[in-house]
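Expect sequence, tokenised fold; for instance:
***
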Amino acid sequence: QVQLVESGGGLVQAGGSLRLSCAASGRTFFIYTMGWFRQAPGKERESVALINRSGSTITYADSVKGRFTISADNAKTTVYLQMNSLKPEDTAVYYCAARERGSAEVDYWGQGTQVTVSS
């Protein structure tokens, strides 16, 4: 099993920045991809940014390209999401996620952290 613990959410004005962190523990050796999803009220959960273990593959949702940056520490057990130029439409609960090698779906989810952007 893998445990994911997020931190860094909060309230910020439009145009501001926040940095989310996600620390993984447990059988982290089997994790191949980590990333961030978000879910706004009344909307489906969507992928925001993903990074593979080697850092060679990074993907972003079109809506956050150029504003958000995903990164990981050398041990690949902590993932960060730097969010700049935040917009009210970025308001959502942000979830850390991890997928093991060979898995087609997310295997582990964090508890979620609220990000609220005021206009």
